[in-house]
Write a structure and sequence with these properties.
There is one protein chain. The protein is built from 4 helices and 7 strands; from the N terminus they run αααββββββαβ. Strands 1-2-3-7-6 form a 5-stranded mixed barrel. By secondary structure, it is an alpha+beta fold. It is about 35% helix and about 25% strand. α1 packs antiparallel against α2. A hairpin with a 2-residue loop joins β2 and β3. The longest helix is centred in the first third of the chain and has 22 residues.
């Protein structure tokens, strides 16, 4: 009985993600990304056991690595949730892909040991406003324990409100 309920919940969530993706003209890979992240959150909500939640997150991360396979991201669609674009090295942007799924610029270590902002300086010239619909391209920043870096500091944050670090090549407001 519980397996049927879980299957119905995951199927409903999958359909919801599919409808969200269609309504926003989301590219196929972005739709898959949203589905994988949402499914892991749904699976983790079914338990209060941290070991099972860790396993759901690990399975999600492995599936994302297989799905993305290091490929560049082109023309994904999102909405600016927050930004600081003032021409400094502290420029920052966070883009909402779906409810509780976000990608953001970050500072990542380079081979020389310095921190590099994943938001290029030329993006600061654009006046992105909170709520703007945007398309963007780039690649996910690599993580230490997975092929992509999820920046949350808690397990629940990483599962239920993940923020993935992203190295932007461009961001364009859609008017």
């Amino acid at each position: 009985m519980i397996k049927k309920i879980i299957l119905i919940a995951v199927s409903t969530l999958s359909f919801s993600c599919h409808v969200f993706a269609q309504a926003n003209n989301t590219p196929g890979e972005e739709s898959q990304f949203i589905h994988v992240v949402s499914s892991a959150a749904s699976q983790a909500r079914q338990t209060h056991n941290n070991e099972q939640r860790v396993n759901a997150k690990l399975e999600r991360d492995n599936t994302l690595c297989q799905t993305l396979n290091g490929k560049p991201i082109n023309n994904w669609v999102g909405q600016v949730e927050s930004s600081q674009l003032n021409g400094s090295e502290d420029n920052f942007v966070r883009i909402k892909l779906a409810d509780n799924i976000k990608i953001q610029s970050a500072k990542i270590p380079t081979s020389s040991g310095k921190l590099e902002n994943t938001l290029p300086a030329n993006i600061s010239a654009q006046k992105l406003k909170i709520g703007d619909k945007v398309t963007f391209s780039g690649k996910f920043a690599p993580g230490t324990n997975a092929c992509i870096w999820e920046t949350s500091i808690t397990l629940d944050g990483g599962l239920f409100k993940p923020n993935f670090a992203f190295k932007f090549d461009n961001i364009t407001a859609v008017h």
